[in-house]
Every structure is written in C-alpha cells, then in structure tokens.
Specification:
The protein is mainly beta. 12% of the residues lie in helices and 43% in strands. It contains two helices and eight strands. The strands form two sheets. A five-stranded antiparallel β-sheet has the order 1-2-8-7-4.
Length: 105
C-alpha cells in the first residue's frame, strides 16, 4: 500500500468551483501508480477534514493508494457514484472522476 503524502498529492487534481470551494479528482499520476482502478473505499464522507487526513483508498491492479486531503476544509459533497463505478477513475473526465468538493475553513 502506498501511504505517502507526496504520492497522494501527485495523484490528485484540484480545481476551483464556487468561491471558497475546491474540487478534488483523480489525476493521471495516480492512474500511472496503480494501473486500472478496481475499487475505492471512502474513509471520510462528511464534515471537516484536516490537512493530511485520509479520505479515500483507491485500489488498482498493481497497488493501493491512500489519498489524503491537500487542504483543510469541510466536505460539501462526495461523488458517491464512484463506489459503484470505480472504473470512472481510469480516464480523465472531470465530470466523472471528481471525488469531493471541499470548502475552505
């Protein structure tokens, strides 16, 4: 299992949404580390996240990666469809491979 903050940071894309809201998604570097994604497990789905708090484990054909929050904030929403469709993380599509929206603290 890969559980290093720098690996987690490389595996995420971040884009601003509304003012004070950031959307986190799965980046190409994450796909390269893990190979095709086969499963995800949510570790946090609501409430506040501290910097570095684990929020998801992504399982691929070659390894597992613990994703940690790159910012402190409050989870506004998660992409709950990923639990049933982890394969959406296999291709870059910001409408499908986003993970969560985080509001600034």
């Amino acid at each position: 299992m890969i559980d290093r903050i720098e690996a987690s940071a490389d595996a995420l894309w971040v884009t601003p949404q509304d003012e004070g809201v950031l959307r986190l998604g799965f980046a190409d570097d994450g796909r390269e580390m893990l190979g095709p994604v086969t499963k995800i497990s949510w570790l946090a789905t609501t409430g506040p996240l501290k910097l570095g708090t684990p929020f998801m484990v992504v399982t691929g054909e070659t390894d597992e990666l613990t994703l940690r929050s790159p910012f402190a904030g409050k989870i506004l929403q998660i992409n709950s469809e990923l639990a049933d469709h982890p394969e959406r993380l296999n291709n870059r599509n910001d409408d499908l491979d986003w993970m969560l929206d985080l509001a600034d603290d």
